Structure formats: structure tokens, C-alpha cells
Fold this protein.
Amino acid sequence: VLREWPHSYAGFFADTEAFLMKNAKVKLCLQASPMNGDLLLEDCNPESDFQDWSWQGDSLMNHGTQSCLSMVGANRLQTSLCSSVGYTRWDCSNSLLSPLGSSQGYLVANRKGVALNSVGGLKAQWQDVADRSVCEEKAEQDRYFPAALASTHVYGHTAGNMTLALGIGQEELEELLWFFRREDPSTWNYSVLALSFVAFILGLLLLAINIVRNRKRKIHMYREAVQTTQQAELEAKQALMPVQEYSLAELQKQEPVLQDQRSGEVVVQWKDGTVTSLYTE
């Protein structure tokens, strides 16, 4: 829809800034003939509406004839109604104009006016009177249309005319207004700030829960280690108790024998347990 607007939309862009199309080589401006739509190269005259052009999407419209720059036949150019089937859309890059979707060349200046040629150069470069590229004019026009759609003044005063001029319904127009909306972002910014604060608090809460759980897990592991150590020590003590009881019993058996010994007597205890005096009287 945006690229194939009919002729009736011209009134909506009547306040759009127009520009002259001056060729960088011959220093003459492109002028549309009001009689037959032919294109001429004349001395630049900012007061002439027939030298005023403006971008309407990808089309170049002449403000004097209210018609669009079009390609007729293989190599002939003239202006024709923007609502006609044969009107041409133009691609603009580095001050060069070429039919969109075609490989027939660039719009160049010659003795007869303008034509299409595959060879670029200064003859194929188009500027305004301030030597700005017509491509820059197109970029400004592309920025102008969303701003115009989003304007509440335009919507309130000319919404009905726009639907007729653009050939779209009221519902489609509202979708465009929503897509190209311009509103105070304060509410959205505050909402994002509040959500960020909530996310920050939630992150701190999760971090605190994780720290507490890790601390409990470490305390539990430490207690299990202490209990395991105490259990091992208890088992070791229980294993030593029979050995100690056996040693005490042996000592009690040996005490009567030792009591029978006299002072200064040398005795020998043999492997079989018998005790004999080394020197008998």
C-alpha cells in the first residue's frame, strides 16, 4: 500500500517540501511540460512549480502537473498519472536514479532532455539547488511520512481524507498509526524501572535462600563427620578392652610367685611358666 499510492494522495503531501532536480553535469534542472508530459532541461527556477519535485514513496511527483516521472517504452521518459498502471518507481543511490526492479540503466541528461543509459557519471547524478543528493531528499521524505501519520492533529483533522487519499480502510490506517506511533515514553520507562527493581529484589531473595541452604548442608556434613569419628574411636576402645583384661589376669597369677621370692634372690622364669632359683643354697 505504501509503495502504490494513487494520484489522489497528492493533496495530503501538499505541504511537503519540494526540491529541484539539477543535473550535476549540465547544471540544468528537470522540468515537466504541462502540455504533453515531456521532460525538459531548463535553467533552474525555484519559482516554477513545473520544476518542483517530491518523493512519494518510491515515485517522483511533479508539483506543477501532479503527475509522476515514468518510463514509457524502452527508453522514453515522461510524466504520467501516478494512478496509471505504467508509472515507474525509482531506486536512488549515490545521486543515481534507476527504475526499480529494472536493469535498463540510469536517468541521464542529454541534448533532447533525459534518457536511460547504463553508463553512470556526472550526467547521471541529480542534486537539488544546494548540491544535495536527491537521495537525501528521499531519506527525509521517508522520515516525514511516519511522523505525519503519528501526529494527533493530522489524525483528528484529516483521518477521513487520508483513508480516501491512500486507498486504505480505517482499520488499516489505525494499524499504521499504531506502528508509527509517537507517545510519551515516561510510563513505559517507569514500568521497566519497576520491573527491574522487582527482578533485583527477587535475585537477592534467591541468593539469600541459596546461602542459607549451603550453610545448613555444610553443618549437616560436619556433624556427620564428627559422629563418624566418635564411632570409630568407640570401636577402637572396645577392641582394646579384652587385651587389657587378659594382661591384668596374668599379673594376678604371677603375684604369688613373686611373693615367695626372697630379697636378693635371682630367679628365672622359663617358657613353660615354671620359676626356679638361679642360685640355690
Q: What stands out?
A: The radius of gyration is 52 Å. The CA atoms of residues 135 and 278 lie 132 Å apart. Helices lie at 134-150, 152-166, 170-179, 186-260. The chain has four helices and 14 strands.
